[in-house]
């Protein structure tokens, strides 16, 4: 999550949850181990939403 924090200027301590949305529309809660495998930015779009002082990140497969 530090890489996401650094690259997209999202405070690390404010990242609440990270989700992956697959092509079928299923939303999956991701942990640090899963996030580490997502390095190819050509395979997903990142959506950042702020709510209640924390950020929700959604990686949508394309």
UniProtKB/TrEMBL annotation:
Classification lineage: Eukaryota, Metazoa, Chordata, Craniata, Vertebrata
All residue ranges annotated as the GRHL1/CP2 C-terminal domain in the record: 1-61
A Pfam family per the record: GRHL1_C
Protein name, as recorded: GRHL1/CP2 C-terminal domain-containing protein
Domain of life: Eukaryota
Cellular component aspect of the GO annotation: nucleus
A GO molecular function held by the record: DNA-binding transcription activator activity, RNA polymerase II-specific
């Amino acid at each position: 999550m530090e890489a996401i924090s650094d690259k997209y200027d999202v405070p690390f301590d404010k990242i609440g949850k990270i989700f992956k949305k697959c092509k079928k529309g299923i939303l999956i809660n991701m942990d640090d181990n899963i996030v580490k495998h997502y390095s190819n930015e050509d395979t997903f779009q990142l959506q950042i939403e702020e709510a209640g002082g924390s950020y929700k990140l959604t990686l949508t497969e394309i």
